Structures are given as structure tokens and as C-alpha cells.
Amino acid sequence: MIQRWTNAPGKFSLPDDTPAEVIIHFRSKGYYDPGKTSGPPERCYPPEGDDERTLDHVEITLMLPNGKEIKLRATEKTAQALFDAYKEEIMGIPIWASDRDDYRD
Length: 105
Description:
- 14% of the residues lie in helices and 47% in strands.
- The chain is mainly beta.
- The protein has one domain (2-93).
- It has a 5-stranded antiparallel beta sheet.
- The relative contact order is 0.28.
């Protein structure tokens, strides 16, 4: 079954030892076709897919010494720098298509 998704949300959080909570929100658009690997050779083809991820925004939460939190939204330039720095990890996050997305056999 071919799965297609558009504008699927995703989040990546920096490791726990980071002095602030930083969450990179992104969107994914793509498809995955598991291929057909059994049956007559003329009907078989390998798996294929594509996944394009784009930055949505970055949230930063700072914990103050008094226990209060400050929530910030990164500037576009800072958000893009973080997205670029963690691109490999972001691409490794699985995207699960929702019920609204397109499934075809």
C-alpha cells in the first residue's frame, strides 16, 4: 500500500543535558511505496519513497533559578540555524501518516 502525506507535523527535542528545553517543530511531505518483491518479475519493483521536511518554528523554554519558566519562540534566523544543525536527527524521526492522508494500493 502506498502511503502519501502532506503537511504532517513533527517535533525534535534537544538532548536532556541541554540547559534549556528546545523543541524544533517541522512539517513533512512525502510518500512511501513498499514495492512488490514477490511474484512474476515483470510485476515486481523495489521500495521507494521521498520525505521533504521543512521548518515550522522553534520553541525554547528556560528554567529560572526561582523555578519559573520562560517560553520563547526563536527568531526565524535562529530557528533555521537550529533546524540545519539537527537536520540529520530530524530526518531520522519517523512520520506516521494520519487518517486524513492518502493511502493507495
